[in-house]
Design brief:
Layout lengths: L2 H5 L7 H10 L7 H15 L2 H12 L4 H26 L24 H15 L2 H13 L4 H26 L1
Length: 175
């Protein structure tokens, strides 16, 4: 089932999500790579198989293979980092923040696409995973590179809608 067909199955109570995603996948402030990379990263992070399959197929029509791989890498590395750094932030014992992470994160520098785009994908995953430390870190990097708030929020909007759709599809499968 392609993305359009899947969106046609969205229940009436979630119609806003369908409309929002359609609009967000065409936002003029973001490049196609930023839009579809954020959508793919968000679908991976949100873990709904049918939505992931549909967004992966749609993203493949808009992204080069290295951007597809970078979106997957962002979801993977943020899956690890968001847990680790959220724990450090939430734990009362601040000594955890002084101990080296000792976790490999080479993909943050070796992803093969524009650094700002990869950072935006990381922001999308971090927003879904609820890691304020990672959101702050990656958001600071993209702003320092000249990216405006509208672009950043555009990627976060995509993440929020993709995640909400995943939740709806999960709920409908369980009902």
């Amino acid at each position: 089932m392609n993305l359009e067909q899947l969106l046609d199955t969205v229940p009436s109570y979630a119609k806003d999500l369908k409309l929002n995603l359609s609009n967000l996948l065409q936002q003029p402030d973001l490049s196609k790579q930023q839009i579809w990379g954020s959508a793919l990263t968000s679908a991976i992070t949100s873990r709904n198989p049918q939505l992931l399959k549909a967004i992966t197929a749609a993203a493949a029509e808009h992204l080069k293979p290295e951007a597809m791989e970078a979106a997957r890498a962002a979801a993977a590395i943020m899956g690890m980092n968001n847990i680790y750094y959220r724990f450090q932030h939430l734990a009362e014992n601040k000594k955890y923040g002084t101990i080296p992470a000792r976790l490999r994160m080479n993909v943050i520098r070796t992803h093969g696409i524009e650094p700002v785009d990869f950072e935006l994908f990381c922001i999308a995953a971090s927003a879904i995973n609820g890691c304020g430390v990672c959101i702050d870190s990656h958001e600071k990097v993209v702003r320092e590179k000249g990216t405006g708030e509208e672009v950043i929020l555009g990627c976060v909007r995509i993440a929020s809608v993709v995640h909400a759709l995943a939740t709806v599809f999960d709920a409908e499968l369980s009902a």
